[in-house]
Amino acid sequence: MAKPSSKSKKSTFSSSTDSTSPDNLAQEEDHPATATITVTAVEIPELTEQEISDRLHLERKVERAFFEAGKALAQLRDRRLYRSTHRTFEEYCRDRFGYTHRRVNYLIAGSVVFDNIVTGTNCSQNEEVDKTGTNCSQNGEVDETGTNCSQNEEVDKTRPNLSRILPTNEGQVRPLAKLEPQQQVKVWQRAVQEAGGKVPSARIVTDVVQKIMERTRIPNTYQTGEVCQILVKDNPELRGKGGCWGIISQVNDFSCTVKLWDGEYTVGLQYLKSYNYLPAECEQMQLISDRITRLRQNENLEEAGRAVLKYLGELKRPYLIQVEQKLLSLIELECEMEG
Question: Where is this region: Disordered (predicted)?
Fold first, then answer.
């Protein structure tokens, strides 16, 4: 008599469910563990060897000077080099570097300002001479005063070369982010002068920016209770607020305090645009704003309720339609009941 084989046979599963016979169906019912389940997976392209190398290289830069960190973070974000380990860029920066979303935006914006200063003053971090001939003499010697000089002119070595004083941290250039590139260069050089030819502090840079805004300021014509739209432009502090409406609660010299759906913010005049609503329409929006504020401060408000409030905070009209009115009333009722 033949001896039975001691090797167990491997079960073979079909990847298709179109040709399942009645016998197979019966067998699957008797043995549910062997049933075939088809799962559709979304493929995320793996990082190539070059991308892995680039990621490590850029991560090292992030941990160094702020301007290199900003450039590296911008590349990591734009090329999505975080996709192999994290779902979002924000999660990746928090886990890998311990950076908040706001900190990342400041670093990226700061690197752009740094580049503008370097380009505008025709110098580099290593104090290389501009090859175009700017800031150099006829025979190629560098003018120590930071201005053009001829071959026979005597160099004044007692004056600091302002074009070679560059920012050393992100806080020094943060006040410049709201200015145009040419203004950024002029303000930085003025700040270096006020710092005695040394790297100016963030406070000095802020003071110079404030003085320039005072000379060129536009009269603040906004009024308390006016409804305005938020314009983000290049302001990282307003990220996610673009298109939201708000009620002006305080009018300042160069800004307004605006109450949005998720809180109050101090916003520069260049980031505001009036809806030019009629007084009655402004009053109606004020009532909606008050209801939203009360709900937002309610500890029983759930995530779905916050999503509705955010939607209402982005309306482009001075009233609620019937379904929006019902949603808002329902959330108010639910919060009262749970309270």
Answer: 1-34, 137-157
Per-residue pLDDT tens for 229-274?
999 887 777 888 888 999 999 998 778 999 999 999 888 888 899 9
Q: For tokens 């503008």, name the residue.
A: 116
Does the model's pTM come out above 0.90? no
Question: Do the Cβ atoms of 176 and 235 come closer than 8 Å?
Answer: no
- Angle at CA 111, nearest 5°, toward 163 and 208? 55
Closest CA to 268 of 259, 260, 276, 256: 256
Tokens of 120: 């505008």
Instruction: Give the whole-angstrom CA distance, residue 261 versus residue 290.
Output: 9
Query: pLDDT of 135-183, one tens digit each?
Result: 333 333 333 333 343 333 343 444 455 557 889 899 999 989 878 888 8
- Tokens encoding 339: 């309270």
Contact of 82 with 76, CB cutoff 8 Å: yes
Distance CA 26, CA 13 (A): 15
Cα–Cα distance list, 84 to 88, 104, 295 (Å): 10, 20, 39
Tokens of 62: 């992030």
Q: How far is CA 185 from CA 122, 139, 173, 208, 247, in A?
A: 11, 27, 11, 12, 35
d(CA 147, CA 135): 5
Token duo for residue 178: 């709201």
Instruction: Scan for tokens 């005072």, then name that residue.
Output: 214
E strand map for 145-254: 227-230, 245-251
